[in-house]
Fold these 2 entries.
Entry 1:
Amino acid sequence: MKRIALLGSTGSIGRQATEVVDWFPEEFSLVALAAHRHTDLLAEQVKKYQPEVVVIYDETCYGALKEKISFFSGEILVGMEGLIRAASWASADLVITAVSGVVGLLPTVKAIEAGKNIALANKETLVAAGPLVMNLAREKGIRIVPVDSEHSAIFQCFEGDGQAVEKILLTASGGPFRGLTGEQLKKVTPEMALKHPTWNMGHKITIDSATMMNKGLEVIEARWLFQVSYDDITVVVHPQSIIHSMVQYGDGSILGHLGKTDMRIPIQYALTYPDRWKNNLTRIDFAKLAHITFEEPDFASFPCLRIAYEAGREGGTYPAVMNGANEVLVDLFLSKKIGFMDIPAGIERILSRHQREENPSLEAILEADRWARKTVLEVV
Ligand code: NDP
Ligand code: MG
């Protein structure tokens, strides 16, 4: 029996993770659940999974949750303190980090320090603090298995210790606005951006997919997970999202990972690794798959991808600042306070003002994130 702490249990990844747990009730149990403020679903999950601890981050929702789970005899915790306690919960073997945003960084660090293996969905953690988190995991002998579909694909195609890896080919759907010009993109609305062609995900990552910042975050995530240089990570637009990514080797072989666009596949693999278990999902029917196509990313219309490569190459506190500014700008776009192209413009303005720190501590990274969030409100 693998005992799991699920941070972000009410979200898109969180809910799909509970489905995977449901498929294998003899093998998995959920000992900790955490959400931000959705008490209804969280209460249902507490009833169903009987965890040892439940966290509601927003303190103002504590009363409502407590009332809904009056039968619950375990601990109910709040805030960052609560998330950290759940992430390092004594009986948990594995932590699934499925919260959205850099709020996942500190709990992930604490989980690693407590010796928990990590199924990592929360890419913002590696964007903001890649070297620090990977070094800590190495020191502690902790396995970080990616949940992000592209990284799960690369992880499965990455042979041995990455010997003779020439290149990572990171595939991208291109999002809902593939083919539009920068001029046309100025007028797109949140409603249009939230209609992703191939994946159904939380709001923040869906907007990131529309700006291509998601692919930029994934480039940085891949750089740290697989210890490859930015020059060796190439983004390939592949609108059908059938090939989830590829690894190119020095002998001319390219290994790719194919599958349906269903996050339960990489989630399951992260929970069963190093084993592969059978499930009943439908498979790809190649006869019905008319064609798969590839194209180059449009760096001119989607500046976020270029910005992420640049911030990643600069390193230090730059990626954390880029990420923090992006989180705030995505919220402002979703609430219709700024336009779509104000997202990359705002990030560039913030990065140009930032005094970069070379080898930041965790505290310096969190401070850079706070600075970016505050300052971005002054520049847009
Ligand atoms: P959602 O917005 O759907 O869900 C986020 C989850 O995190 C919710 O359960 C939310 O709770 C919870 N949460 C948010 N903030 C806090 C907080 N401060 N404390 C505790 N819980 C919190 O996001 P997704 O599931 O789409 O994405 C989660 C992560 O996975 C992101 O980092 C994303 O980039 C990554 N990812 C997602 C993919 C997908 O297909 N969705 C694919 C690849 C990666 P509440 O419901 O109460 O708000
Ligand atoms: Mg992805």
Note: The first helix runs from residue 12 to 23.
Entry 2:
Amino acid sequence: AVLIQPMTEVPINGKDMSNFAELVQSTRETFYSGKTRPLEFRIKQLQALKQMLEENRHEFHAALNADLRRSKFENYVLEIDYTINEIIHLLRHLKEWAAPEKPTRTFVNALDEIVIYKEPYGVTLIMGAWNYPLQLAIAPMIGAIAGGNCVILKPSEVSVATAKLINELIPKYLDNECYKVVCGGTNETTELLKQRFDYIFFTGSTTVGRIVREASNKFLTPVTLELGGKSPVYIDNTADLTVTVKRVLWGKFINVGQTCIAPDYILCTPEVQNAFVKEAKKIMKEWYGENPQESQDLCRIVSDKHYQRLTAFLSNGEVAIGGQVDPADKYISPTILINVRPSEPVMKEEIFGPILPIVSVSNAYEAIKFINEREKPLALYIFSTTLEDVNLILQNTSSGNVVVNDTLLHMTVDTLPFGGVGLSGIGAYHGKLSFDTFVHPKGCLIKNFNIIGETLASARYPPYSEKKLKV
Ligand code: NAD
């Protein structure tokens, strides 16, 4: 089986990869035919993508539930409706964003035209991650379509049901020559990355991000890398603790911590730690009941591999809440670890699961030092009402994004760039940036043969002289 649309099955680790070169080549020919250039075409495709999501809400929920045992509420809010809203926002502004820009002319260019054209790159490769398998595949694709590019989409093979559905529905709704889905795992991705693309948009781990960057170097292909990392939470004793606990736990346990911007660990004083744990016990009982395993609102760990990786962290500190596991159900209860030493494995790698360690620091200065001694995080969360301390942390740390007194919600603000810095990523998207990411701003100077202009500019021609330098 060749891994090219249309397909009826998702071939995971299929063998025949000989057609990737042909796939990219035929897509490039389509791009050069100019099919994706007219705005009307792009708008029609975006509308069709929106229709695909709207008409298949239930099917997408079922697939996401099969992959992650995720609730209808989270599936609709975080994936289906979220992605529909991204399309609506882009459709509302596309004409304005795609229009050539006319920057202000200086005296020197008074007789010229200066224009910035928003040129599509060509054939783009988009690779998604499994933790939000619909949103992370489709949201970048929206930007690529809006920009006038062709797309080869590779959904994550780990979230099989969602990959299968995307693979089945995209050809039914979108133009088959311009937008293609390729399914598969590491082998297919490795082969795919040998091809020449005009833009690569990757969401996944820092480890694979490096592989993508290396592959892209061969053709100097521009990349966006939306990666991961350990996103810290700093809480001081001026924060409203009841609200803080709810906002941190919500951000952590949504999708059972399998969120790239989930709060990874907490930095606070031992006093704040004790108060946090006391309040968290109450809130978690309210949210998930006496036995969280019976709650319909908690997802499961995506795979046995991740389950094994996560359960090893449970001995890395004192279990203050949770700690229950069930391998048959890939279940780990929402867990808080206290008095965790920074040298423990749980503090060395991205957790990506329902385990929340708390590390003691005495003040904002110590928190800054702790954060700066590690890789730059994707997100940083500060809970405090002391403006000086908030500013101190903001100005002395680096992270992809910051939220003060909440978690995750920056991703819903479509006027904010969403992305990492350092090992947490390269580039950003959402809203207008999703469009900007997928277009090359081509600066054009358009001159004429006007005699006045030619006379004024003739000093540039040889023979040069001291006198001409003063003109
Ligand atoms: P991953 O890096 O393991 O996999 C991502 C993709 O890379 C998959 O499609 C897979 O097929 C491919 N891949 C895996 N190994 C490969 C290899 N050796 N060579 C070539 N391709 C390979 O990531 P994941 O497990 O799907 O997702 C989890 C990670 O993604 C976490 O680190 C998380 O923080 C990050 N993430 C980031 C964002 C963001 O927006 N910044 C969003 C979601 C997830």
Note: Residues 127, 129-131, 136, 154, 156-158, 185-186, 189-190, 203-205, 208, 211, 226-228, 260, 350, 352, 378, 420, 425 surround nicotinamide-adenine-dinucleotide (CB under 6 Å).
